[in-house]
Automatic annotation (TrEMBL), chains A, B:
Protein name: Thiamine-monophosphate kinase
Role: Catalyzes the ATP-dependent phosphorylation of thiamine-monophosphate (TMP) to form thiamine-pyrophosphate (TPP), the active form of vitamin B1.
Top EC class for this record: transferase
Residues bound to substrate: 23, 231, 278
InterPro entries, per the entry: PurM-like_C_dom, PurM-like_C_sf, PurM-like_N, PurM-like_N_sf, ThiL-like
Binding-site residues for ATP, renumbered to this chain: 89-90, 118, 181
Keywords: ATP-binding, Kinase, Magnesium, Metal-binding, Nucleotide-binding, Thiamine biosynthesis, Transferase
Extra remark beyond the main annotation: Reaction mechanism of ThiL seems to utilize a direct, inline transfer of the gamma-phosphate of ATP to TMP rather than a phosphorylated enzyme intermediate.
Length: 281, 281
């Protein structure tokens, strides 16, 4: 899935496609698949500070009526939760056994201050992130049956909450903003690269939830695991370190002249992990 | 594929999904599949008199690089032809052998006079259609190898031309408008139903191309075949019989109080065919 949106005048548009076996598991509840498809698109709007106007949806049916009914129920639930109308869409029928594929377009109104991009960070800016990081990664492990953890972790993976209110409040205050979809380190490095800057990240500052600490711990390895897992859908933004912030967020790093991403913690510099995030095929 | 678009303020939005084996044939050239996906969405905008602002695209790749490259080439060609920017999109990789699935969202600006709907026909209005009808249906038979006809028929099936200019010119003059995607009779009956009226259609007036006449003929059966084939992507509209029309179109019928669709020709009333059009699964 892309984590960026197009800006067209005062409109923000995003289109994501998800496929069974790639972006969701065959045994994921269909209600949650629908929820997540909508939520990740709304997260793209949130990163632009946009107010959702509606969504259009394309879905491929494969003849499993119970699954399809669950998907529709989940779709109704998520649209109601975030007060977003379904403007239109299309269905196709695929042969039984074909992977399920869904596409969603979300359209929103940009904030009056203009939609922030990922490329506007300034040297000296702090890097902030909303919420906690790494929960969805552990939720995925729970869905795959390889981890026993708190239900909140599974919910973070299956029913992410797009940070619409925070994005709208922050849009006029930040120099750059994007959502964290492919891993904190990977997305932070993308913001630095797009802004023509270097970014250094304090691993000790990466916000971990109590459920994450309980399931994994808070060692450097655990911090790295959280910061390289995908599917967080928090907002990552650059702002002056002393800017008054209209939404809760944690400062986790700093931008400076140069390029690339570097890590440190209380023990000093930390080596970069082999991969900075999670990329779907 | 749906043939309708959502109107949101001064915006018109449409999303169509197409799947291999359902909306296109496995042996259709990938350049043409891309062309048609864009063209049918632009046709939905044309029916609203809208000016395209851009498209967002979702495509599933299946590992066949030559096919994918052809698809991208066709996409570039059709966007250039109709001067429409690609605003964004997403790709997913599916296992080899999975049916190819594509989704497209098109967004346009509604005309100053407002976007016509399909429900505004008035008793006494004439029903008009642009261009010729039935060519794409014969083109499909050619693609399937069951008909030997003129290349223009195959082109009508594989590379339909959305009637954007005509739609923009007509929008302020018509009482109702839609595009003909599932068959002239089926779409005309939908307009009548949406408008709470009856419609009668003169089969002799259904415009057939020279290539159609040469490949099939112009008997009542041939007229019915043309009027029930899909994929025409012409504009169907209701207007006063004596309205000055800013685009070329043929009057083919009349709206009256009542409900349902009826057919006639020079020999008198004609029975309705068993099916009025072509519906994809």
């Amino acid at each position: 899935m892309t984590d960026d949106a197009a800006v067209l005048g005062d409109l923000v548009l995003t289109h994501d496609m998800i496929a069974e076996g790639v972006h969701f598991l065959t045994n994921d509840p269909p209600e949650d698949v629908a929820w997540k498809l909508v939520a990740v698109n709304l997260s793209d709007l949130a990163a632009k500070g946009a107010t959702p106007l509606g969504v259009l949806m394309g879905y491929a049916l494969t003849g499993d009526r119970a699954w399809d009914a669950g998907f529709v129920a989940g779709l109704e639930a998520v649209l109601k939760q975030f007060d977003v109308p379904l403007l239109g869409g299309d269905t196709v029928s695929l042969p039984a056994g074909a992977p399920r594929v869904f596409g969603l377009t979300a359209i929103g109104r940009a904030p009056a201050s203009g939609a922030p991009s990922r490329s506007g960070a300034q040297a000296g800016d702090a890097l902030f992130v909303t919420g906690t990081i790494g929960d969805a990664g552990l939720g995925l492990a729970m869905a795959q049956g390889t981890l026993d953890g708190d239900a909140s972790l599974l919910a973070a993976y299956r029913r992410p909450v797009p940070r619409l209110v925070e994005g709208q409040a922050l849009a006029g205050q930040v120099h750059a903003m994007m959502d964290v979809s492919d891993g904190l380190l990977l997305d932070a490095s993308r913001m630095a690269e797009a802004s023509g800057l270097a970014v250094s990240i304090d691993l000790d500052a990466v916000p971990l939830s109590p459920a994450f600490r309980q399931a994994k711990g808070e060692s450097r390895a655990d911090q790295i695991k959280a910061a390289t897992a995908g599917d967080d859908y928090q907002l990552l933004f650059a702002a002056a370190p002393d800017a008054p912030l209209p939404a809760l967020a944690t400062p986790i790093g700093r931008f400076a002249a140069g390029s690339g991403i570097s890590l440190f913690d209380a023990d000093g510099p930390a080596p970069l992990p082999e991969r900075l995030g999670y990329l779907h095929a």
